[in-house]
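User: Please fill in residues for this 70-position structure.
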C-alpha cells in the first residue's frame, strides 16, 4: 500500500510510462514533466514515489503488467 496520495501515484506511473515510450514526442513531454513538475516542484514526492515503484517491482505479488500500473 502506498504512503502517497492516489493521484500522486497515478501521475508518477504515467510519467514513468511516458519516459519508457519509444515515441519521441511522448518521451520528450515526459522528460519536461519530470524536470518541471517533479524535480523542481516536488522532489520529495518524486523520490518517495520512485522508491515505492522499486519496492513494488521487487515484490513477487506485483508485476509491471499489473492493471494497476497501466
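Assistant: Residues filled in for all 70 positions:
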Amino acid at each position: 500500500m502506498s504512503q502517497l496520495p492516489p493521484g500522486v501515484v497515478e501521475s508518477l506511473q504515467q510519467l514513468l510510462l511516458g519516459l519508457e515510450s519509444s515515441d519521441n514526442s511522448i518521451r520528450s513531454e515526459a522528460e519536461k514533466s519530470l524536470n518541471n513538475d517533479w524535480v523542481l516542484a516536488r522532489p520529495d514526492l518524486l523520490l518517495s514515489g520512485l522508491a515505492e515503484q522499486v519496492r513494488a517491482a521487487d515484490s513477487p505479488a506485483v508485476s509491471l503488467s499489473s492493471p494497476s500500473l497501466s
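For context: The chain has one domain: 6-59.
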